[in-house]
Amino acid sequence: MSISLFYFVAFLSIFFALLVIFAKNPVHSVLYLIVTFFTFTIHYILLNAQFLAIVNFIVYMGAIMVLFLFVLMLLNLNESQGTSKSAIVKMIGVIAGMCLVITLVGSLKALHVSDPLVLQTQDLGLVKNLGKVLFSKFLLPFEVSSLLLLSAMVGAVLLAKKDIKQA
């Protein structure tokens, strides 16, 4: 993995995350969030975590972002409504920001520079290895969760089904 490519993608992640925060239009903000999640997917691919990359791409970029866009389209965001915040809300925001900065500074002071983390096996994040572990060591929890999801699906279908009255 090229370290310059990693830093370039990290810069893009931070840049688009800042655009999410500072965008005035909420739809543009959601689109910047999609690009930010895509840069996270690139990070996962660079770190050889294929499963996390696929899940991030499908779940976050697909389902959740579509949900955000639908919510934004259904909201009535009129420009005529005033968006002025009270002084209490602004003060709470400043206090929350200061708490975040204090936490980050404290975390960075407690962080000790050490040797870089070297994985014992380079293929740790591969889907093949995840499948081996899921179907050997964690077979029972995997099957129980699949039965739970199946029962939730059947319940959702039964709740959504229209009751046909016999005439």
From TrEMBL:
Compartments in which it is found: Cell membrane
Membrane topology value: Multi-pass membrane protein
Enzyme class: translocase
Gene3D superfamilies for the chain: NADH-ubiquinone/plastoquinone oxidoreductase chain 6, subunit NuoJ
Keyword set, alphabetical order: Cell membrane, Membrane, NAD, Quinone, Transmembrane, Transmembrane helix
Transmembrane segments: 6-23, 30-47, 53-75, 87-108, 138-160
Catalytic reaction list: a quinone + NADH + 5 H(+)(in) = a quinol + NAD(+) + 4 H(+)(out)
E.C. code: 7.1.1.-
GO molecular function: NADH dehydrogenase (ubiquinone) activity; quinone binding
Keyword Glycoprotein among UniProt keywords: no
Superkingdom to which the source organism belongs: Bacteria
GO cellular component, one term: plasma membrane
UniProt record similarity statement: Belongs to the complex I subunit 6 family.
Role summary: NDH-1 shuttles electrons from NADH, via FMN and iron-sulfur (Fe-S) centers, to quinones in the respiratory chain. Couples the redox reaction to proton translocation (for every two electrons transferred, four hydrogen ions are translocated across the cytoplasmic membrane), and thus conserves the redox energy in a proton gradient.
The protein's name in its UniProt record: NADH-quinone oxidoreductase subunit J
Organism listed in the record: Daejeonella lutea
